[in-house]
Amino acid sequence: xxKVKVGIDVGGTFTHAVAVDVTSFDIIGKACVPTxxxxxxxxxxxxxxxxYQLLENAQIxxxxxxxxxxxxxQATNALLEGDVAxxxxxxxxxxxxxxxxxxxxxxxxxxxxxxxxxxxxxxxxNDATPVTEERVRQAIKELKQEGAxxxxxxxxxxxxxxxxxxxxxxxxxxxxxxxxxxxxxxxxYGLKIRTRTAVVNGSMMPKMMETANLTEEAVRxxxxxxxxxxxxxxxxxxxxxxxxxxxxxTMLSGPAAGVAAALMYARISDGIFVEVGGTSTDISxxxxxxxxxxxxxxxxxxxxxxxxxxxxxxxxxGSIPRFDKNRVVEVGPxxxxxxxxxxxxxxxxxxxDDIELEKIQPRKGDPKDYMKIANNGTNYTLTPSAxxxxxxxxxKFGHGQANMTAVTRAVDAVAGKLKMSGRELADSILKxxxxxxEGIVKKLIREYKLDKSFVVLVGGGGGASALVPHASNHMQxxxxxxxxxxxxxxxxxxxxxxxxxxxxxxxxxxxxxxxKIRQDASESVISMGAEPSTVEVHVEVDNPNRKVxxxxxxxxxxxxxxxxxxxxxxxxxEIAAHNLKTQKEHIQILGQTNLLNVVGYEKIxxxxxxxxxxxxxxxxxxxxxxxxxxxxxxxxxxxTTADGVKGVIEELGEELRSYGDAGExxxxxxxxxSGKIIDLSGLLNISQIISLVDYDLKEFAGDNxxxxxxxxxx
Length: 714
Hints:
Blueprint: E1 4-10, E2 14-21, E3 27-34, H1 43-57, E4 65-70, H2 74-81, E5 87-93, H3 95-104, E6 110-113, E7 116-118, E8 120-126, H4 133-145, E9 150-155, H5 163-174, E10 178-181, H6 191-221, E11 228-231, E12 237-239, H7 240-245, H8 253-264, E13 271-276, E14 281-287, E15 290-291, E16 293-298, E17 301-308, E18 311-313, E19 319-324, E20 327-335, E21 342-343, E22 356-360, E23 370-375, E24 378-381, H9 384-390, H10 404-417, H11 422-447, E25 456-460, H12 464-475, E26 478-481, H13 488-495, E27 498-504, H14 511-527, E28 536-542, E29 547-554, H15 569-580, E30 588-592, E31 596-600, E32 603-607, E33 612-616, E34 619-623, E35 628-632, E36 636-641, H16 645-656, E37 658-660, E38 663-665, E39 668-673, E40 676-679, H17 686-697, E41 705-711
Parallel strand pairs: 1-4, 4-11, 5-8, 5-9, 9-10, 13-25, 21-24, 25-26
Antiparallel strand pairs: 1-2, 2-3, 6-7, 11-12, 13-14, 14-15, 14-18, 16-17, 19-20, 22-23, 23-24, 27-29, 28-29, 30-31, 31-34, 32-33, 34-35, 36-41, 37-38, 39-40, 39-41
């Protein structure tokens, strides 16, 4: 019997569903329905419709499904539209800290958008006197009278002891309220940001609970017994039960799903992912096999939540050009479907000999120079999609191939009205789009210190071919369009890794602290359904901010570890040479495990007219299919065994230690063993690294091949 994962992505216009064969990674079914924003059941109805359509179209039986996951716009929409609950805050503390807590935990009404506020009410309990159930019940009754629908508990120094927070949540739930505690969302000190995060989370709970219940009920009625997961904003997935408690983690889960697909399906280890929809484009960075994350914000308010760093621009495959006199002056942000204009690229009409060119205002307050083409009783427009087809840049067709006769005649007809050639018109439309992409890409290259010579633009989304080829040519960068790009986010939902982040306020952590937070993060993803043997954890010590962060990922099954088609050593070197931009003859295999290869070459850089020379070693970690897992511009490599790893780490630590403004710097260390890449970068001393290595290597035999990589910090 097949094993199938189902992924569903809720987009602004369409909800897509896909079925992925777990063993082969083949797409065995697709479905698409309009997103049900106006439905009484909200976007959940579209999720359910697309799921049933997929099962029918692809002839999939419920027993074949091992996992179903979906992204959601519900949390983001709730905040943007002000569809949130009134939150009652119960803060606790005593003494001087308690007096400060009264000020820090009192949120007043939180600003969401220019005309939307999140209402709150507040009570403070001095815990110098024991916080009893009776006191809590009385506070909740008072908050209810002020309109509170959800209760949030937050205590001074809660990360050290959150018993009172837990008790408040329990009492509130017994009284029929939804409730959440600040410590369940963040273990960091900082009462204000912890409380604010809990308030935003609590405000979403009623709406998200309704959506979760509707979705889960429909899935179970279909006969599917597999885990039901929801996409997180950091690119991972979590079970729907966890979403009920922490809906805030699903903000921006749509763009995160696309990035997950770039990693798991397109297998991009380094690149800039450009996901193009009809109206907008999301741009994000994948570096060293990892998405780049940032702290989420509501307005100007920071939250204790991580999201993938996604930059959005107001141009997509269906954006409308704006023009003045005989030239294009802008493209977007309005798109054809918003202005109720037909796409000239996808019409059956082929006669554009007698058009009228007009300027329109799609919505009140918009500029009045958007392009409308009146032709034979139908209103059309040109779009970047049409321009890209006209210039022959489209090689992959996404939702469907354009009518090239209509494209050619429409572009030429408009160009004639503007007194220019068709190529000039198409190029001018795409230049405005490419300039917008270029501005974001340059920022990301600078902020994340990317080596431009290695940067690849990876296009996904239904409009990828409309924008990415021209943008890459404009910026002189390599590009690729993912397979099945129109459903890339749904694929990402299906293939997403279970993920969780644990952050704690610890200054100068002990080795035991490091091992403990690593264990807690690991146990968290295992409790959400990850197979223990697939779990990988990266621990980082951030002493300036007095915190330790552990990020754990794992798969819900062993399938992603299964081998598929192994490539020959010669082919492996050919792929490596392409990625490292060198000759195949230069590539050497520097170390191997039973599942991974470490390959690289020695590169000599000349400075001062060749008088000074510097040696570098660019390196890739690749699996046996030739997929690049990590890329390093310069790193030292030493092959060893599991028993020899600690000794090699100590040797390389001594050899590559350096000194900076903050004192001694140890090298970034990575250990490759079996199919795992153990990322030990971000730690402060060799002792911490050895403690984690002991923990991570205990499952491996001493003679198991291993490779240690060490990068000197500068």
